[in-house]
Amino acid sequence: MIYGSAGKDHVPGKPVRVTINGRQYRAEEGETVLSVAIREGIPIPHLCHEESLDPYGACRLCFVEAGKHGKREMVTACTLRVAEGLEVTTDTPTVTKHRAILLELYLAEAPKSEVIKEMAARYGVMKTRFLKKMETDDPLGGKCVLCGLCVRACTEIMGAGAIGFINRGPYTEVNTPFLEPSADCYGCGACVKVCPTHAIVMEDSGSERVMKSWSGTRVPLAQCDCCGRYYAPKELAARTLSALDPQLERELAGLCPSCRGKQIAEREILARQGGAGNHA
Amino acid sequence: MDSHALDAIIARYDVPDGRLLGILSEVQEQEGYIPHDVLVMLSEKLGVRLSRLYSLVTFYSFFSLQPVGEHMITVCMGTACHVKGAEMVLSALGKHLGIETGMAQDGKFAVTTEDNKFTVTIARCFGACSMAPVLSVDGNLYGYATPENLPAILAEFGWREHES
Ligand code: SF4
Ligand code: FES
Ligand code: FES
Q1: Which of A9, A261, B67, B120, CA to CA, is 20 to 30 A from B152?
Q2: How much is the pLDDT for A5?
Q3: Is A174 in the pocket of ligand 1 (CB under 6 A)?
Q4: Closest chain A residue to B103 measured between Cα atoms?
Q5: Do A167 and B59 touch (CB under 8 A)?
Q6: Which residues in chain A touch residue B36, judged by CB atoms under 8 angstroms apart?
C-alpha cells in the first residue's frame, strides 16, 4: 500500500460528551478536540493539522482553553484528546491575544501569503512589528510558514521522503537535499495538496511534471494509450496499478482515468447487449 | 573515504538510538566535513532518506558541508561576547584573512580562506563569558580578544600580515 499511515484500521472509541463553547457534542474517545470542532463546524484556526497524519502541534494557532471541573489551561486543540466532561472554550480573551501575536509572527515569516493575511485580518492584525522575511529567490515565494505538513505528507503518507527541513532557526527552509532535483520525488503532489498557504509550485509541461519549488525536480508523466493525454506520474501510476489485481492491471494499464471509465462503460454496455465475448 | 571505511563506522553505531549523529560525527571528524557523495552513500547503506540526513547535517553547527581549512577559528557570538564587542573582532578577523564574514551559502556561518589555511565560524557561548569576547583556534581558547591582539593570535598559526 502506498498510503502507509493513513488507512489504519479504525477501531471506534468509547462515546464521550464534550462541551465546546457551552454546547455539548458527542465524540469518540481518542478523537482530538480539533477534529470534533472541524466536524461540527466550530472555527478554530489551524495551519499544521491534517486528519490523515498524527497530531503534531507545530503552528500553535489552534490554542484553546480547556479543562475539567473549572480548572483551565491553554492547550493546542489538535493535540488534545477528548474525554468525558471536558470543557473547551475556543475564543477567550487570553486565547485571542496569543493568536494575534502568533499571526503577527506569521505575517513576518510568510509576508507574501494571502491565507495568512486573511487569517490575521480576522484578528485585527493588519501589519507586523517583526522583521519580515524577504528573500528574492525564495522557491516558496515568501509564503511558507514552516508548518511541516509537506515534509510529513511526503515522508509519512507517501513514503518518498524527497523533502526535509534544512538549516535551523531563522534560516530554516523546506527543500530537497543539497537543493538539487530529487530522485526520491514521485511528483504525486501530496505536498501541494496539504500546504495550508499554497506555497508550493508544481507545473505539468508536456511529458513532464516540474516541482518548481523543489529545486526544479522533474518527474516523467505517463501517457494514455487511448487519448494520448499525460495523466499521472509514470512511477506512481505503475505503483498504484501493481496494487490492483493482476487481471485488472493488465486491462487498465496505460489508460488515463477518463479513457478507463469509457472502456469499462463500453464493455458493460456490450455485455448487457450480449455482445461481449470475454466479459467475465 | 571508501565503502569499507564507511562500513567500519556504521558497525560501531549499530544501535537504534543516536546512530545517525554518531556516524555523521565520525565522518565529519575523519574527513573534516561531510562530503556530498559520502552522505549519499550513507543514505543507501542505512536505508535512511537523504532528506533526513541532510536535515541533520544542516541543523547541527558541528557539521560542515564544505571542506574546512587547516585551522578552525570559532568566534563566540553569545550574549556576553556580543556585548563585549565580538562583532568588531569578527569583522577585524575577516579583514586580516581577506574573507567576507557574511553568511555561508548553506545558512551556516563558515567561511574558508582561499589558501585553505583558515576557516572562520561562529558559536553561541563557549561558557567562558568571564573572558568575553572569546574565540577559539583549533580548540585553544583565547579570551579578551580585540581587533588589536588578533594578529598575535593568528601569527601562532602561521598567519603573516603581508599575506592578505
Ligand atoms: S511549504 Fe507549505 S506545507 Fe510545506 S512547510 Fe511550508 S507552509 Fe507548510
Ligand atoms: S493545528 Fe494545532 S498546533 Fe497547528
Ligand atoms: S557569550 Fe561568549 S563565552 Fe559566553
Answers
A1: B67
A2: 40
A3: yes
A4: A171
A5: yes
A6: 178
**What is the average pLDDT score of chain B?**
87
Q: How far is A268 from chain B (nearest CA, A)?
A: 45
| A66 within 8 A of A73, measured Cβ to Cβ | yes
- CA dist., res. B63 & res. B56, Å (int): 9
| Angle formed by the axes of helices B19-31 and B3-12, nearest 10° | 140
DSSP string covering A135-194: -TT-TTTT------HHHHIIIIISS----EEES-GGG-EEE-GGG---SS-----HHHHH
Cα B105 to Cα B100: distance, rounded to the nearest angstrom: 12
Q: Ligand 2 centre from A48 Cα, in Å?
A: 5
**Count of CB atoms within 10 A of residue A176's CB?**
25
Block residue for cell numbers 515522508: A155
Which residues, given as ranges, of chain B have pLDDT below 50? Answer: 104-107, 164
Domain ranges of chain A: 15-91, 133-223, 230-279
Give me ligand 2 centre to Cα A45, in Å: 8
Preceding omega of A196 cis (within 30 degrees of 0): no
Distance of residue B46 Cα from the nearest chain A Cα, in angstroms: 14
Q: Is the pTM of this model over 0.90?
A: no
Q: Which CATH number, 3.30.1440.10, 3.10.580.10, 3.30.70.20, 2.60.120.1130, labels domain A133-223?
A: 3.30.70.20
Residue B103 CA to ligand 3 centre (angstroms) = 20
CB contact under 8 A, A184 and B52: no
Are the C-beta atoms of residues B99 and B113 closer than 8 Å to each other?
yes
- Of A187, A166, A186, A196, nearest to A53 by C-alpha is A196
- pLDDT tens across the length of chain A (280 residues): 333 344 455 677 899 999 999 999 999 999 999 999 999 999 999 999 999 999 999 999 999 999 988 789 999 999 999 999 999 999 999 999 999 999 999 999 999 999 999 999 999 999 999 999 988 899 999 999 999 999 999 999 999 999 999 998 888 999 999 999 999 999 999 999 999 999 999 999 999 999 999 999 999 999 988 888 898 898 888 877 777 777 777 777 788 888 888 888 888 888 887 654 444 4
For the structural domain made of B71-163, what CATH number should be given? Answer: 3.40.30.10
Distance CA A85, CA A89 (A): 13
Q: Which residues contact A250 (CB under 8 A, 6 or more apart)?
A: none
User: For position B15, what pLDDT does the model report?
Assistant: 66
A15-91 under CATH 3.10.20.740, yes or no: yes
